[in-house]
């Protein structure tokens, strides 16, 4: 990273060089990188409670933000007051659309930490206004929404995008890349991903036959805007404060929540793209409204260039553990996992992570930024001298986004990288909801054996006055 001292030194040397004609001045691109290294980005935060507060803290630690606006549908509630108190000069809004109408010229980037179903319209409005976008994962809830977001990123190439799978800027990312380039990770034929901790909906009645009854809307809450483009649901506490993650209409369950922290490097560096077959091998507690209490979902990916076909099998649910290879050893737990309203992720016999099977080696890894290790330990010792040095990350995920906004770096998880993975999760959720296997044609982006599933790629039409966000 360029420091102020380095910048002044470079500027002085450049000036001297111009004076005596002994060196060329900085070109425009170089100057942009130097000048942008310490420039603060004017930012608006959308969704400022709970997870929103956490990412606001992380952005603040970079020293690279100037907070212009705060927006949340529940401004004034207990979980938003702390952030409001920290930034008394920031302008406050309940409706993101009003914020863009009134002060869009005052900020250059947004950070979105709202429920999954609202990521899409906020992102599309921001990009149409030329604003850089940091959005929490999953970037979209439906296949079509992710498709449109990627299309918008191509239409607005000067807009910087970053999805909030923070491990993509940590050792997990750089190790996988280095090991693949060195030929340590090659010929991967199977990946097992697992997240077997308790989730919010695991104690709910799976005999549900209708949505929860209406309750009084809290006085501080703009519930109409909270619903966004999704057909209106009466307020119930089972939707609010993170409970939205449990419902097909609003969230993406354990797969959408944790998949991005477990499968991100596998998907990118193995160039997996989109699967040709999605099969819900096992669903326990299946119903029409919220996610199963346990799921085993298999995704089949075809050969890519010299890489062989590869299956990814996802396991969630407390009693739905995957088979463990001999010599697995202990299960790691990333110490940097953010706290959640669902409770801390506590170390168990098998913590969230993955097992990567190649023709010659087996690797195990945890979630987020945790690195892979070769198993069994005896094989790891044999391979130790052959492992390449792993470079350190030049910036964490939040600084990477802000430095990209000022032209210094490129984001590591932009929409063109994360978008197809988000679509994989959407296909998995569709398999959970329909409880049936289906086949997908990645060339036409159509499901070929199930008309209902194919229609679900687009999702339910948006609520009145929200259809505008689906036009590019």
Automatic annotation (TrEMBL):
Source domain of life is: Bacteria
Pfam families, alphabetized:
GFO_IDH_MocA (PF01408), GFO_IDH_MocA_C2 (PF19051)
* All copies of domain Gfo/Idh/MocA-like oxidoreductase N-terminal, residue ranges: 42-161
The residue ranges of the Gfo/Idh/MocA-like oxidoreductase bacterial type C-terminal domain are 213-271
Give the Gene Ontology MF terms in alphabetical order: nucleotide binding
Q: What is this protein called?
A: Gfo/Idh/MocA-like oxidoreductase N-terminal domain-containing protein
């Amino acid at each position: 990273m360029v420091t102020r001292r380095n910048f002044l030194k470079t500027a002085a040397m450049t000036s001297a060089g111009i004076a005596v004609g002994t060196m060329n001045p900085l070109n425009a691109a170089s100057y942009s990188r130097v000048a942008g290294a310490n420039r603060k980005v004017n930012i608006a935060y959308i969704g400022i409670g709970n997870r929103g507060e956490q990412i606001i803290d992380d952005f603040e630690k970079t020293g690279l933000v100037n907070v212009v606006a705060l927006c949340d549908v529940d401004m004034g509630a207990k979980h938003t007051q702390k952030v409001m108190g920290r930034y008394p000069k920031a302008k406050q809004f309940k409706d993101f659309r009003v914020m863009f109408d009134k002060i869009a010229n005052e900020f250059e980037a947004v950070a979105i930490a709202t429920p999954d179903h609202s990521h899409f319209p906020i992102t599309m409005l921001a990009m149409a206004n030329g604003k850089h976008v940091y959005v929490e994962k999953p970037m979209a809830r439906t296949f079509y929404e992710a498709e449109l977001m990627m299309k918008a990123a191509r239409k607005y190439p000067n807009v910087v995008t970053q999805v909030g799978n923070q491990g993509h800027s940590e050792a997990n990312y750089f190790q996988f890349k280095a090991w693949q380039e060195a030929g340590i990770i090659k010929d991967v034929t199977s990946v097992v991903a697992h997240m077997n901790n308790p989730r919010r909906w695991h104690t709910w009645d799976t005999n549900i036959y209708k949505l929860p009854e209406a309750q009084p809307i809290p006085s501080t809450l703009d519930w109409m805007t909270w619903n966004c483009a999704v057909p209106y649901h009466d307020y119930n506490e089972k939707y609010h404060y993170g409970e939205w993650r449990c419902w097909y209409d609003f969230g993406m369950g354990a797969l959408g929540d944790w998949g991005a922290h477990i499968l991100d490097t596998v998907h990118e560096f193995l160039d997996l793209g989109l699967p040709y077959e999605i099969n819900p091998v096992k669903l326990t507690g299946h119903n029409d409204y919220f996610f199963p209490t346990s799921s085993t979902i298999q995704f089949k990916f075809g050969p890519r260039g010299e890489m062989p076909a590869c299956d990814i099998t996802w396991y969630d649910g407390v009693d739905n553990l995957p088979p463990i290879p001999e010599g697995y050893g202990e299960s790691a737990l990333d110490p940097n996992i953010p706290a959640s309203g669902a409770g801390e992720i506590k170390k168990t016999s098998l913590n969230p992570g993955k097992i990567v099977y190649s023709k010659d080696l087996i690797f195990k890894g945890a979630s987020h930024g945790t690195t892979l290790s070769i198993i069994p330990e005896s094989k790891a010792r044999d391979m130790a001298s052959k492992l390449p040095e792993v470079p350190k990350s030049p910036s964490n995920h939040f600084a990477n986004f802000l430095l990209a906004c000022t032209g210094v770096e490129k984001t590591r998880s932009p929409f063109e990288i994360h978008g197809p993975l988000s679509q994989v999760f959407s296909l998995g959720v569709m398999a959970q909801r329909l409880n049936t296997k289906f086949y997908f044609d990645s060339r036409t982006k159509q499901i070929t054996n199930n008309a209902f599933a194919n229609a679900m790629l687009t999702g339910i039409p948006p609520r009145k006055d929200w259809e505008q966000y689906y036009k590019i």
